[in-house]
């Protein structure tokens, strides 16, 4: 009986003990593990859960409160822990770089309770790269950004290192930005993953450049030291010229164009051009427009500025005697004198004028009687057979009206009178003013393949012509020839050097006033003779002097500088895009280790179907 009582008490104790270990209702759960990114020993974050369950299996029942189950990539373990609220701890760990979903079951005693645990393995987040549609753009232009990612990503963020750009959609994988100011900006794209162990952030960076839009900051007439800013007018007399330079900030791969209706433009070199005023008989206003076109990755932006060019009738000086008769020829003996005065046409009434009498030898002396009136006296050296030339320069300056504007644009504006020829008067000298007067020859200079050809006009009564040359602005004058020929071929020239030639007619008595011409030695500009369709492309034929070869340009506008081919003969095959093509060509030549280039030819338009 006592034995039965003891057995019953033990049973009650066991029941009481089992009652303390309650099988609480553990919900089915999903565990997400994220790789720690250590490629040499790839593991996933460990997660620990308390559980009442005492067994773990993947199939048949396995009982106990100390058990580990593993399939080679995932380890799940139930460990007895009397300090745990439920008496056991479930630990989950994975240790291979695989993406794998696995389902396990945990059981209570005698398989009466069963709960499912889904284990999801997520690869460590990765960033493969960052790309931008455009890394160089104009201010105000926008473009896209994109992150290439892999693995387990929970979010994105984008940052920049300055305010040159504005960022948009910074919480997404694909963002965008707009350029604000010129300059470089470093943009960082971040991929974020949140795990039980904290936050994992990976980033990629890229530098983008914002270019300023083209702006014309200044238009300067080179003859005015202070410059003509923006819309300030340029004043010119008829037939005079001014070299105008436009200064541009911003833009990219800029091209330049001057346009002017009624004015003559020449020597256009990028942002510089020479403006020549037409002949007018009254004050006339014209417009000169400068346009800059910027091209960046196919995006075109333009800016333009227009200034006024005001043309005035050109002042004229005439020499006359005191009785008002015009003078171009006068006969005098030695130790004689002649009073002369000036008559002025088209001079501003409020401008100050200073006169200067110039003679080409020491045979004439001048005495200033008043401003614009002089006494001319012959010296004792003025004997039979001698002749002397006299002319007057009038300088306009410091006027308060039109003259002041002209002098500002052209420095001290100088008008020169025609020559007054004075010859010795005697019984043994026959005079014919038309026969004794030497005009100034007109000089021309032209680049040829092997040098520079200088030519000049014939002068009546000249027995010969003296040709001089200097190199650059500060070179010395050297006599090239003295003969009765009307041209000279200068072979001793170098490319890119500037040469100035002056020519003067002479006879047995006098040497006339010279005229000058400056020219830069350069390659001759070729031209396109024809373009015909051929098998596989288009055949181009070029006319002009041949050097080392030719560069072919093709584009969608007449000023294109898009190089498509280089050929070393006057005929070659080129390939054109569909649509309208504007073709241009220039010559090049290798001189030593450097290359020099001609000006670009006029364009030829071709339509490709």
UniProtKB/TrEMBL annotation:
Signal peptide region: 1-24
Enumerate the transmembrane spans: none
Could you tell me which InterPro entries the record lists for this protein?
FN3_sf, Ig-like_fold
Keywords annotated in UniProt: Signal
Q: What is this protein called?
A: Fibronectin type-III domain-containing protein
